[in-house]
Amino acid sequence: MARIRTAKDVSRKEVIIKAAAKLFHEKGYKAASMRDLAVKVGVEAASLYNHIRSKAELLHDICFDVANIFNAHINDVETSGKPPLEKFETLLRFHIRQMLENFEEVYVSDREWRYLADPYLSNFQNQRRNYRKRFAAIIEQGIESGVINKIDASTAVLIVLHAVSGIESWHRSTHKISGEILEENMMTILIDGLKK
Predict the structure, then answer these.
(1) How much is the pLDDT for 52?
(2) Which portions of the chain are predicted below pLDDT 70?
(3) CATH number reported for the structural domain that contains residue 17 in this entry
(4) How many domains does one find in the chain?
(5) Which of 23, 102, 110, 178 is the most exposed place for a label (fewest CB within 10 A)?
(6) Range of 20's domain?
Protein backbone atom coordinates (compact mmCIF):
# COMPACT_ATOMS: atom_id res chain seq x y z
CA MET A 1 0.00 0.00 0.00
CA ALA A 2 1.28 3.50 -0.85
CA ARG A 3 2.30 5.86 1.94
CA ILE A 4 1.67 9.58 2.10
CA ARG A 5 4.85 11.33 1.02
CA THR A 6 6.00 14.20 3.19
CA ALA A 7 8.78 16.75 3.08
CA LYS A 8 11.06 17.23 6.07
CA ASP A 9 9.28 18.82 9.08
CA VAL A 10 5.83 18.30 7.49
CA SER A 11 3.40 15.81 9.02
CA ARG A 12 1.17 13.48 7.00
CA LYS A 13 -1.85 15.32 8.37
CA GLU A 14 -0.45 18.63 7.06
CA VAL A 15 -0.01 17.05 3.62
CA ILE A 16 -3.64 15.87 3.73
CA ILE A 17 -4.91 19.30 4.83
CA LYS A 18 -2.98 21.04 2.02
CA ALA A 19 -4.37 18.57 -0.54
CA ALA A 20 -7.89 19.00 0.90
CA ALA A 21 -7.66 22.79 0.53
CA LYS A 22 -6.67 22.36 -3.12
CA LEU A 23 -9.50 19.87 -3.69
CA PHE A 24 -12.14 22.00 -1.90
CA HIS A 25 -11.06 24.97 -4.01
CA GLU A 26 -11.31 22.97 -7.25
CA LYS A 27 -14.58 21.11 -6.60
CA GLY A 28 -16.18 22.87 -3.65
CA TYR A 29 -16.49 21.28 -0.22
CA LYS A 30 -19.84 19.61 -0.89
CA ALA A 31 -18.81 17.97 -4.18
CA ALA A 32 -15.39 16.79 -2.98
CA SER A 33 -15.20 13.23 -1.67
CA MET A 34 -12.71 11.39 0.50
CA ARG A 35 -12.03 9.16 -2.51
CA ASP A 36 -11.06 12.29 -4.51
CA LEU A 37 -8.76 13.33 -1.69
CA ALA A 38 -7.15 9.90 -1.50
CA VAL A 39 -6.37 10.07 -5.22
CA LYS A 40 -4.82 13.53 -4.75
CA VAL A 41 -2.66 12.29 -1.87
CA GLY A 42 -1.87 8.97 -3.62
CA VAL A 43 -3.25 6.48 -1.09
CA GLU A 44 -6.32 4.31 -0.52
CA ALA A 45 -9.27 6.20 0.95
CA ALA A 46 -9.23 4.01 4.08
CA SER A 47 -5.63 5.09 4.79
CA LEU A 48 -6.73 8.70 5.22
CA TYR A 49 -8.66 7.76 8.36
CA ASN A 50 -5.38 6.84 10.08
CA HIS A 51 -4.65 10.57 10.14
CA ILE A 52 -8.05 12.34 10.13
CA ARG A 53 -11.57 11.59 11.33
CA SER A 54 -13.66 13.13 8.55
CA LYS A 55 -14.03 15.60 5.71
CA ALA A 56 -15.70 17.94 8.22
CA GLU A 57 -12.55 17.86 10.38
CA LEU A 58 -10.48 18.94 7.38
CA LEU A 59 -12.76 21.93 6.69
CA HIS A 60 -12.62 22.86 10.37
CA ASP A 61 -8.81 22.69 10.41
CA ILE A 62 -8.44 24.76 7.24
CA CYS A 63 -10.88 27.47 8.36
CA PHE A 64 -9.59 27.82 11.91
CA ASP A 65 -5.91 27.60 10.94
CA VAL A 66 -6.45 30.54 8.57
CA ALA A 67 -8.49 32.44 11.17
CA ASN A 68 -5.74 31.93 13.76
CA ILE A 69 -3.09 33.28 11.37
CA PHE A 70 -5.15 36.41 10.59
CA ASN A 71 -6.09 37.00 14.23
CA ALA A 72 -2.47 36.64 15.39
CA HIS A 73 -1.40 39.13 12.74
CA ILE A 74 -4.02 41.75 13.58
CA ASN A 75 -3.07 41.40 17.28
CA ASP A 76 0.52 42.30 16.34
CA VAL A 77 -0.63 45.21 14.16
CA GLU A 78 -2.93 46.66 16.83
CA THR A 79 -0.17 46.66 19.45
CA SER A 80 2.62 47.80 17.09
CA GLY A 81 2.41 51.49 17.98
CA LYS A 82 2.40 52.38 14.27
CA PRO A 83 0.19 55.24 13.03
CA PRO A 84 -3.26 54.17 11.72
CA LEU A 85 -2.49 54.45 8.00
CA GLU A 86 0.64 52.35 8.42
CA LYS A 87 -1.37 49.76 10.36
CA PHE A 88 -3.89 49.67 7.52
CA GLU A 89 -1.12 49.27 4.92
CA THR A 90 0.45 46.44 6.96
CA LEU A 91 -2.90 44.61 7.18
CA LEU A 92 -3.62 45.10 3.49
CA ARG A 93 -0.20 43.78 2.42
CA PHE A 94 -0.68 40.77 4.69
CA HIS A 95 -4.06 39.97 3.12
CA ILE A 96 -2.64 40.27 -0.39
CA ARG A 97 0.35 38.06 0.40
CA GLN A 98 -1.83 35.41 2.00
CA MET A 99 -3.96 35.33 -1.16
CA LEU A 100 -0.80 35.03 -3.26
CA GLU A 101 1.10 32.49 -1.14
CA ASN A 102 -1.61 30.43 0.64
CA PHE A 103 -4.37 30.88 -1.89
CA GLU A 104 -6.25 27.60 -1.58
CA GLU A 105 -6.45 27.66 2.22
CA VAL A 106 -7.53 31.33 2.32
CA TYR A 107 -10.04 30.77 -0.50
CA VAL A 108 -11.63 27.77 1.26
CA SER A 109 -11.74 29.63 4.57
CA ASP A 110 -13.41 32.59 2.87
CA ARG A 111 -15.91 30.69 0.69
CA GLU A 112 -16.59 27.25 2.15
CA TRP A 113 -16.85 28.09 5.88
CA ARG A 114 -20.65 28.02 5.65
CA TYR A 115 -20.45 24.19 5.60
CA LEU A 116 -18.98 24.09 9.11
CA ALA A 117 -21.27 22.46 11.68
CA ASP A 118 -22.28 24.19 14.91
CA PRO A 119 -20.85 25.10 17.35
CA TYR A 120 -17.91 25.72 14.98
CA LEU A 121 -20.04 27.60 12.45
CA SER A 122 -21.21 30.17 15.03
CA ASN A 123 -17.71 30.51 16.43
CA PHE A 124 -16.24 31.11 12.98
CA GLN A 125 -18.93 33.67 12.07
CA ASN A 126 -18.20 35.55 15.30
CA GLN A 127 -14.48 35.54 14.53
CA ARG A 128 -15.14 36.94 11.03
CA ARG A 129 -17.38 39.71 12.42
CA ASN A 130 -14.90 40.62 15.16
CA TYR A 131 -11.99 40.69 12.71
CA ARG A 132 -13.84 43.09 10.41
CA LYS A 133 -14.74 45.32 13.36
CA ARG A 134 -11.08 45.45 14.43
CA PHE A 135 -10.02 46.25 10.86
CA ALA A 136 -12.68 49.01 10.69
CA ALA A 137 -11.49 50.41 14.05
CA ILE A 138 -8.03 50.99 12.52
CA ILE A 139 -9.63 52.92 9.64
CA GLU A 140 -11.69 54.94 12.15
CA GLN A 141 -8.47 55.82 14.01
CA GLY A 142 -7.10 57.11 10.69
CA ILE A 143 -10.23 59.19 10.09
CA GLU A 144 -10.01 60.67 13.60
CA SER A 145 -6.33 61.53 13.15
CA GLY A 146 -7.07 63.20 9.80
CA VAL A 147 -5.04 60.92 7.50
CA ILE A 148 -7.96 58.97 6.05
CA ASN A 149 -10.99 60.47 4.28
CA LYS A 150 -14.29 60.57 6.13
CA ILE A 151 -15.91 57.35 4.95
CA ASP A 152 -17.90 54.54 6.49
CA ALA A 153 -15.15 52.31 7.89
CA SER A 154 -17.20 49.09 7.78
CA THR A 155 -18.00 49.63 4.10
CA ALA A 156 -14.34 50.37 3.40
CA VAL A 157 -13.33 47.06 4.99
CA LEU A 158 -15.86 45.16 2.87
CA ILE A 159 -14.62 46.84 -0.33
CA VAL A 160 -10.97 46.16 0.51
CA LEU A 161 -11.57 42.51 1.44
CA HIS A 162 -13.62 41.92 -1.72
CA ALA A 163 -10.86 43.49 -3.81
CA VAL A 164 -8.29 41.17 -2.20
CA SER A 165 -10.63 38.22 -2.72
CA GLY A 166 -10.57 39.10 -6.42
CA ILE A 167 -6.96 37.88 -6.56
CA GLU A 168 -8.61 34.54 -7.36
CA SER A 169 -8.94 35.84 -10.94
CA TRP A 170 -5.20 36.56 -11.05
CA HIS A 171 -4.51 32.93 -10.11
CA ARG A 172 -6.69 31.75 -13.01
CA SER A 173 -5.19 34.14 -15.55
CA THR A 174 -2.85 32.71 -18.19
CA HIS A 175 -1.27 36.11 -18.92
CA LYS A 176 -0.57 37.69 -15.57
CA ILE A 177 1.74 40.22 -13.99
CA SER A 178 4.03 39.10 -11.16
CA GLY A 179 2.68 38.84 -7.63
CA GLU A 180 4.97 41.71 -6.57
CA ILE A 181 3.58 44.06 -9.24
CA LEU A 182 0.02 42.97 -8.40
CA GLU A 183 0.63 43.76 -4.73
CA GLU A 184 2.06 47.22 -5.49
CA ASN A 185 -0.79 48.02 -7.91
CA MET A 186 -3.40 47.03 -5.33
CA MET A 187 -1.65 49.05 -2.63
CA THR A 188 -1.62 52.14 -4.85
CA ILE A 189 -5.30 51.81 -5.79
CA LEU A 190 -6.64 50.95 -2.36
CA ILE A 191 -4.42 53.20 -0.22
CA ASP A 192 -4.75 56.27 -2.49
CA GLY A 193 -8.52 55.88 -2.32
CA LEU A 194 -8.41 56.22 1.48
CA LYS A 195 -5.73 58.86 1.95
CA LYS A 196 -6.89 62.37 2.76
Answers:
(1) 84
(2) 1-10
(3) 1.10.10.60
(4) 2
(5) 178
(6) 12-48
